[in-house]
Amino acid sequence: MKRYRDKIVIVPLGDVDYFQINKLSTALSSRFGHSVDILQGIKVPNEAYDVIKGQYFSTMILQKLELLKASEKEKILGIIEDDIYSTRHHSLVSDADAVGGTALVSLFQLKQQFYGLPDDEKMIYQRLVKEATRVVGALFSIPYCRNPKCVMYNSSEMFDIDQKTEKFCDICKRTYMKVM
Ligand SMILES: [Zn+2]
Prior knowledge:
single chain; alpha/beta; Collagenase (Catalytic Domain); 5-stranded mixed β-sheet; 3-stranded mixed β-sheet; globular
């Protein structure tokens, strides 16, 4: 029987900038030491859209992403432009289902436009790579970190995301080596 290796699979949902996705895949591959595939973009599932909220229900999108898994060893990371929500949060930057092995990052709040500021591609990318690393780290069972400079720091505010680095601290690095 063929043994599958851990793999990260990025799935763009809707109209996501391919250049940023490509850069992200290289960054995740070097951070986690696994190969990263980029799937052809899929349409954002209509049924996950809440007309009244004007947002997408992240739990339903995570379930859809799980259907794309080719093996249990794959971790699926969806990237979406639109705003997402869950039953516990009215708006989210990211969401993950550790059991399903799926995660989702929304670019909506990562954009400077959201704060009434001119857009800055470099800044969006830096935020994207940090948030994507944190959720994928969570899928590999790395817990939240108390070090505000560590990428695994629980950064729910944009200020915290901007303050932290895109790297693991020494403790998280060792934690990851154990599960790798
Ligand atoms: Zn850490």
